[in-house]
Design brief:
It holds the Pfam family DUF2569. By secondary structure, the protein is an all-alpha fold. About 70% of the residues lie in helices and about 0% in strands.
């Protein structure tokens, strides 16, 4: 039995003279939308928490000072790489949020690029930690974050490229 109150978006005929308006965020699109909206805040908080702890506890001085018994050039370079990467991801996530709010037609491909860049950074970070830091704390967390990122890229990337809702939402 067919529910007559449900509109099948695939059979809607558009008036060629009428300006096309984007659809509201809905359906499965809500799930990646939550990530797009929260990601800049989570990344800022995570970066701030990690690096404030490193700087305020004096760990940075011990790692970065060549006079310290704990001096480690590799770890120093990894931390600088992580800080620069996190700042880059904050900037990109804010730009992605801007595209999302504007319902830009560039959003789906930009999201895929963003997640791909994030996965690349996580991979480099994981390799550096494994290579230069013995018993790297958080390496397991990095691996799980990378796995989640790759999973999201495959599942949500496919959805963003194939979905009619996405095509009808991000049109500006």
């Amino acid at each position: 039995m067919r529910d007559n109150n449900v509109i099948d978006e695939s059979i809607i005929e558009e008036d060629p003279g009428k300006k096309k308006e984007p659809l509201a965020i809905g359906g499965w699109l809500v799930l990646p939308s939550i990530g797009v909206i929260t990601n800049p805040f989570r990344t800022v908080y995570g970066t701030y928490s990690m690096f404030m702890n490193i700087f305020q506890s004096g760990q940075w001085d011990q790692i970065a000072s060549s006079n310290s018994a704990f001096y480690d050039q590799s770890l120093k370079n990894i931390l600088v790489f992580e800080l620069v990467s996190n700042v880059l991801m904050i900037i990109l996530s804010i730009f992605l949020l801007y595209l999302f709010i504007r319902k830009s037609k560039h959003f789906p491909k930009s999201w895929i690029a963003f997640v791909s860049i994030n996965a690349l950074i996580l991979t480099v970070d994981l390799v550096l930690c494994r290579k230069f830091v013995t018993n790297a704390p958080g390496a397991g967390d990095l691996f799980m974050t990378l796995a989640r990122s790759l999973f999201a890229l495959v599942v949500w990337g496919t959805y963003l490229m194939k979905s009619k809702r996405v095509k009808n939402t991000f049109i500006k």
